[in-house]
Amino acid sequence: MSTVWIIALIAVVVLVVAAAAVIVFRQRRGGGGHGLKRRFGPEYDRVVARHDGDTKAAERELSERVERHGSLEPRPLTPETREQYVAHWAGIQEEFVDSPQRAVAEADRLLARLAADRGFPDGSQYDEQVAALSVHHPEHVGGYREVHLAAHGEGSTEQMRAAMIEARELFEDLVTAKPADSGKHRPQHASHDRTRVGRTRAAPWFAGSGGRHHHHAKGSGA
After folding, report:
1. Is there a single domain that holds both residue 169 and residue 126?
2. Do both 113 and 61 map to the same domain?
């Protein structure tokens, strides 16, 4: 084989290796634009809008989130802690009827504590906590943001009610995923547990238009 052919072969090998390295690098950063959009869903669109349509800047931010928080392994909750959170959320929903502002403020604090208990950054680092949650719960992290804004006095009663409804989805994700007692006897009940949690916490104002209701027992249907 001539020297020219050897050089050409080496060049081809180098190009193939370089292309493979680029592919691996992009996968580690979230799979490129399409991969990031698939992974983040509505969060992708929100970040693009925040960057005034600059998809490169948005994807850079999302890729950095994946690098910082993608390897995070959420900690399980003990059954006792899980039930305490479920009961607390039920109480917050009932409190909303008489004091929406106080209820959303308490929901904001509860979500921050619950996320920290699951191994996400502490609630005192709100932005970082939300960034980590957006990597693992991109579909529902928006509810936490809305509740956080409402807790700081932004929004009408109806907006606060909508924020609580959306935040409930994130609460369900965090409180039901991988319970500490998810041993041999638990997996077959996973979907049942999530349904039961939703029913336990549901309050009348979730189903209606946000009007005032009184004397409803805890656990009435959504």
Report:
1. yes
2. no
Q: How many CB atoms lie within 10 A of CB 105?
A: 19
pTM of the entire predicted model: 0.69
Question: What is d(CA 32, CA 198) in angstroms, rounded to the nearest whole number?
Answer: 36
Q: Is the dihedral of CA 166, 125, 133, 198 positive or negative?
A: negative
CA distances, 192 to each of 150, 165, 187 (Å): 31, 20, 10
Taking the alpha carbons at both ends of the chain, their separation in whole angstroms is 77
How many structural domains are present in the chain? 2
Same domain, 20 and 53: yes
Query: What letter would DSSP give residue 219?
Result: T
3-class DSSP state for residue 80?
Answer: helix
The Cα diameter of the chain in Å comes to: 92
∠126-120-169 over CA atoms, to 5°? 80
For 126-177, the pLDDT digits (tens) are 999 999 999 999 999 999 999 999 998 878 899 999 999 999 999 999 998 6
Residue 47 structural domain = 3-69
For residue range 26-52, what is the model confidence (pLDDT) as tens digits? 444 444 568 899 999 999 999 999 999
